Amino acid sequence: MALVNEHFLKLPNNYLFADIAKKVNAFKVMHPKADVITLGIGDVTQPLCPAVIKAMHKATDEMATSQGFRGYGPEQGYDFLREAILKNDFLSRGIHLDIDEIFISDGAKSDTGNIQELIRWDNSIGVTDPIYPVYIDSNAMIGRAGTMKDGKWSNVIYMPCTAENNFVPKIPKERHVDVIYLCYPNNPTGTVISKQELRKWVNYALKNDTLIFYDAAYQAYITDPDIPHSIYEIRGARHCAIEFHSFSKTAGFTGIRCGYTIVPKELTAATLGGERVELNPLWNRRQSTKFNGTSYISQRAAEAIYTPEGKEQVQATIDYYMENAHLMLSTLRGLGYQVFGGENAPYIWMKIPSGSSQSWQFFEELLYGANVVCTPGVGFGPSGEGYVRFTAFNSHESTQEALDRIEKWTIQR
Ligand code: PLP
Description:
With 413 residues, this protein is an alpha/beta fold. The protein has helices spanning 16-30, 50-63, 79-90, 108-114, 134-140, 195-208, 248-251, 279-290, 296-304, 308-334, 359-370, 396-412; strands at residues 37-38, 102-105, 125-129, 148-149, 152-153, 156-160, 179-183, 211-215, 241-246, 259-262, 268-270, 276-278, 338-341, 347-351, 372-373, 375-376, 387-391.
């Protein structure tokens, strides 16, 4: 008899965005003429830049010849892309990496979800709350998160990030945390961490033998020069942190699929017997066994964003989205809403005005009243209750139209 992995049964029935889609579809069925604008799901809308398209065409043409055809590539990624990453994302910031510390993947969702395979099932995990749901759900699937009660997992240490603490979580004192997930710039709050604050986490990790999983998927949106783009800008981080990157929001690769993960060679974790084991060879082993590489065409596309024209074009799209973010911040503030993020990240985190404290309730009111879709904050964790998230990824026109509708709806309420 095949026994099911019952940990899956403890998961909430649906992924957050599937729940949202269901509610939006129900609305559309009832109101077929309504023109719904989504500022909800974090997917990009602008086309790939010309440098990327050119590189993909060239790679496709190569694949059409017997000399240029490529079959399985290296599981860790092609050196041409690893070298471009090393030089442009790290050396340019004074960070020295070895090429075999960079693992190319099909995106940060897979890597942030799979990385927990490297650690024993009984490690304690700490997360900032609210949080990108993949971190906890992937731990829940193998039983590490415990059981869900009143919206919280029994074995997860939640570190609330709210307006009251300026979205800077307190370092947990009550209980030792073996593994901590940090994500900056943050999804969903759009807030960032200063070098000084990040240093505190690195020092905590070094002192307590804690492993940090650092998700830097939105680092390309940072404009403030004092905000770190990588945890390795902090001394000592090579001994305690794995870092995840994505080309999805940097260069519109949500459909192309490419990202990468850094596992430094100094990084170790303990066996029960107290022996130290290097994590870089373990991740290499894991990837070589379960992953057959990102497509050659996607990797050539990613390489193109590091060319001078690629950099310029990618930045132009980021600037486009950030114009939306700034417009959203100023409009929503002008309407009296309390909003956060949106300065170094494509997300706006808005406190729901008193009256409707439930974020799902506000989501429905906004959908039915203004035909605008946001994401209910509670979907990202208990501390997200009382907030909603807006994304800056729509077109200027749709963003402006959504804001006009929100304005009208707010005044009428
Ligand atoms: N990490 C965070 C914080 C995200 O918000 C997302 C996507 O929304 C991802 C990772 C996944 O990125 P990718 O498209 O590279 O899988």
